[in-house]
Amino acid sequence: MNRFDHRQTYWFAQAPDDLWQTLERYDDFESWWTWLRSFAADRPGLTAGNALHGLVVPPVPYPLRLDVTLTECRRPALVRALVAGDVDGCAELRLSGAGGGTEVLADWSLEMAAPSLRVAARVAYPLMRWGHDRVVEMAVSGFRRRAMPAAVA
What we know:
By secondary structure, the protein is α+β, with helices and mostly antiparallel strands. 29% of the residues lie in helices and 42% in strands.
């Protein structure tokens, strides 16, 4: 129990290209997600080679430092990335038009890299999994509420 695997589909009211543009608004990320601190990108846009850096503070006591390197970006359909820092792994977002909006398949596999997280995963994996899942829920709901307020009714 040292890994978080996640694979879920989410629907958003924006068309794929519009959603892509919203995802590139890095300066707004911290206002959308209260659990995200000190976020920065090396350069603008979802482009291969760009690196994103942030601190995630979930509702359990283990803040995570993350560096996300975008390895493949095909507008407006695909973002692949490598994740490093306190967790290591790979992540992917697949966007496709559906129902007048965009269906996003979010898929990642992340292993605890920080020694303290590896120990915590051995003794408190259910709590850590709960924290991961709450951050994902907060990410989706915060994005819908703050990044796309006109689409929420």
